[in-house]
Amino acid sequence: MPSRWKHDKPMSRTAFDRKFPDDAACARYLSAKRWPTGFTCPGCGSCSSWELASKRFTRECRDCGRQTSVTAGTVMHRSHLPLRTWFQAVHLLTSHSNGISAEQAQAQLGLGSYKTAWLLLQKLRRAMVDPDRNLLGDIVEVDETEVPLRRKTDPIAGFGIPNVGKLLIIGGVEVFDGRVPGRLRLEMLPSKEGDDVRAFVERAVAPGSTVVTDGLAGYRKLERHTHVGKTVGLMAGHVVLPWVHRAFSNLKRWLMGTLHGVRKQHTQRYLDEFVFRWNRRRRTAAAFDSLLGLVARLDHASERDLVPRRA
After folding, report:
1. What is the domain partition of the chain in residue ranges?
2. How far apart are the first and last CA of the chain?
3. What is the per-residue pLDDT across 23-66, written as a single tens digit (0 to 9) for each?
4. With contact defined as beta carbons under 8 Å apart, do 44 and 38 qualify?
5. 139-283 has which fold?
6. φ/ψ (deg, to 5) at 252
7. What is the pLDDT at residue 259?
8. How far apart, in whole angstroms, are the C-alpha atoms of residue 113 and residue 35?
9. Among 174, 162, 252, which Cα is nearest to 210's?
10. Lowest pLDDT segment from 35-39, 151-155, 249-253, 299-303
11. Using CB atoms within 10 A of its CB, is residue 291 exposed (0-12), middle (13-18) or buried (19+)?
C-alpha cells in the first residue's frame, strides 16, 4: 500500500520556519486569514485604517478611532505568549499524527512552566470544534465504550458495569458504500438510558439517516432516523460495528499512550482533538490552516473558563 504521506503530508519544520520566521510574519498571515479582502473595523465596518507604530500588530480605524489588534476577538486574545509560539503550537498539534502532551509541548516550545503549556494546548483543543460543521449522514454506526480515568472516583452506576474509575463514551462514524469510513463524533455519555443515547444521535446525526447499533433498547424510539439494530450476542462488537470500534480502539491507545490517561472534567476536549485528527486523517496538509482558521474565529477563553472552580 502506498504511503499516504506521498500525496498528503503536513508542513515540515523547515518549511514552517521559512514561512513564519518571526512574529511579524505570523501577524501578516493571521491578518490575511481574518480579513481576506482587507481590514474591516469591527466597530463601524469601515475599511479605512492605518497600522499603529506604537502598538504591535494593531490598526486604528480612520472613521471611529477604534484600535483593533490582529489577535483581538480570537483564541489568542490577551495572551502574553509570542504570536509565533501560538503558530508553533498549532503546527505541532496538526503535524503529529499522535498529537502531543503538555510536557512534550513545554519542551518543544521552550515554555517556562508545564501550566503554560497545558493551558495553551487546552485553548487550542477548545477551538477544534467547528460551530458550523455538518451533521453525520448516510449510514452511521453508533455504539458506546468505556475509557479509564486518572482517578478512580467516577464510577458508572447501573447496568451491572463494575468499572470504578471508568467513563462512558458514545461515538458515531459515517460509513459509505458499506466499507468506507467517513467523519466521526465522540461525546461523554452520562448513562446508557434511552434519553441520553437518543440525545447524542439527535445532536450528531442528520435526520433521515440510517443509524446502525448493537440493538441497545434505548435506540429503538428514534423518531427522525431509521434504526437498524444488530444483535451482537456472544459475537465481538467490532465484527458487526467495525468502524466505530476502530475509532474506539485508536482513541484508547492515544489516551493512554500520549496523554497517559485523562481526568473527567477535561475529557470532552481530548475527544474533540481526537475527532479533529480523525476527520482530517486524509487531509493533514490542510489541518494547520483549518485549526488556525478556527482559532481566528472563536473568542478568547481564560483559565477560569477551562478549569472548573471548586465550590
Report:
1. 139-283
2. 55
3. 999 999 999 999 999 999 999 999 999 999 999 999 999 999 99
4. no
5. Nucleotidyltransferase; domain 5 (3.30.420)
6. -65, -40
7. 80
8. 34
9. 174
10. 151-155
11. buried
